[in-house]
DNA sequence: AATGAATGAGGCTTCATTCAT
DNA sequence: TATGAATGAAGCCTCATTCAT
């Protein structure tokens, strides 16, 4: 609420991110978090309602940062094809550069699940999906993309992205996964774009 | 000891490997292991002396499989240069193909430590180092390699290998790490081999 | 049953005595006993029906040795007064010389309880009480002792003995307890004996 | 820290002392302690860090009481010879009057060990040794004692005291041990004091 | 007579969570 | 806002005991 509380709250999430990334959910204790912040365990409950809540808020925050970075990069371009391509590249780039978020993802890949029945991070994934939807809608309006059904297509692309992440970081097929991603991206752009090919 | 106990013991380790790989050390409970095997927690203590022991025996077993695979592949070649190159390639290949061992490594990279003060997996790493030593010694005898000081060189190569694994799977620099590894391998072989270059 | 089994059985009790004396009942595990004997835990159950049983049989054996020693010493004398006096002295003497039995007693003084409702060692204490009874009966027959009611008197004397042991070893009033015992003995002999005083 | 916590803490130690003295370390469960105090097992961990810690804190407290009593008695006298003699007498006296501390000692005589490698109760024994040192130093300054080397002499006397306790309560040589102690004390005072003999 | 394998009860310990202040 | 004190669930581990062989 207040500014002070808000600042403290963000401080807590940042600290929690470090610890969850380093030690994992189970091994990170509330005492660890509290100690590193110089406060007491009990006091944490003033800001979050339980450990799981702390974890989800922490991860949400980290994801929002990732989404913002991608959105910002995407806004630089005008052409929907370019936007799409930038989005695909930046999403990966960001994860490569942010060890903590990547570590969280490796430990807990279930975080990405576009299925609302697993409510856990549905809302956050929704943000990512919506960005895809926006680009698709724009591309169609611009006449750059074929007239695909936006919603399911956005979900498909998101799933492909998640599948790639899992292959790369969890199933660890490293190089081949990246090549697959690059190849797939080409195909998708080719299949998505009308007339003149979208550059890449 | 007996055949039956031995079979059960291996069954336990195999099951434990799955669980440790999937859930990590802390989150895997002995009840998980026991339940999946259809036995009681207490009975596990007939086969291992505690949870840590179960973990170490499990990891040891998995590592032995990896070492055996590499050794077998290495034996196919006669030339020390080829052996070295195969060893380097197979070590990575095996880890890429075995999700569980890789998952263990990602969660607990400290496993690889050639320092005897951390007694944990010293013996196992020693097995890997010895293979390198053998290849180096052979190469020198064959006149293929320069006369390097075998022991420290073997340790150096092992460290490089570990560093690469960490970059690839823990620090997750994926592609670039693999390229670095390939480049490094070329340089090493060039610097190691005498006269005619070792093929790669 | 068989001679071999009997020998083994005594060996077990002797070993158990050492361990129970040294570590106490709770801290002594059946594995301790089995290991020291070079047999398995399970096999112990062929000789005793459970840990408590082993303990009680062990203590019984030790007590029987103590009773035998006292009986043997008592038999040397003919005069009932002398017998009584020797019994009193020897009982203490023996405990002083046998560390293990004494250690058992110190840890578990409840062992001595002449109350049949606590069935634990009733039978064994009974042996001691009977010796007193015999001496009393003899003394009366010899005309040396007043005609006391044998049974309750024997129990009284036994209780006094136990009280003394507790004061000495458990409540640890050492010296004063011994003086009390000596004084008490004099009084008792004086009160017990007719005509000419019983020597001491 | 706070007054309330401090009171509770002492209450815990007092209760634990009763139980440890009565049942011994192993047989005393934290549930026993907690139940007797009307609190939960877990809550005990707010005051001590584990069972061993509870035991050591409990014993420490009991020992401090014993040391204080001896110190107080010693302070009544001015003459170093008298102080020494009082210390020797009071140390025994106190243990005789305090069943619980004595019981603890009988069960766990290793508590008294002036060797710092066994860190367990080193500090506490140190307190006792220091009192001896102080008396020796004073006696030398007063010209009452010969100029002995204070530190090793204090340790020697402490060792003699412990040896006596073990003979009396553990090896249970009761009377003879006390006589030995009294004789030894006379000799020591004679050997320690200059000129006129220290009274006893 | 003896053993290997298995079990359940119970002990120690950690930790998320709550409540009064 | 913040804390100290308290709790219960769940985890690891030991050990007496049993059963089939």
Overview of this protein structure:
The structure is a homotetramer of 200-residue chains. Helix content of chain A is 77%, strand content 0%. The longest helix of chain A has 26 residues. Chain A is mainly alpha-helical and 200 residues long. Chain A has a domain of 137 residues: Orthogonal Bundle (Tetracycline Repressor, domain 2). Chains in contact: A-B, C-D. Chain B binds a DNA duplex (21 and 21 nucleotides) through α1 and α3.
Helix-strand layout with pairing:
4 copies of one chain form a homotetramer.
Chain A: H1 3-27, H2 30-37, H3 41-47, H4 51-76, H5 80-97, H6 99-107, H7 122-142, H8 150-170, H9 174-192
Helix pairs in contact in A: 1-2, 1-4, 1-6, 4-5, 4-7, 5-7, 7-8, 8-9
Chain B binds a DNA duplex (21 and 21 nucleotides) through residues 1-2, 4-5, 8, 29-31, 39-43, 45-46, 50-51.
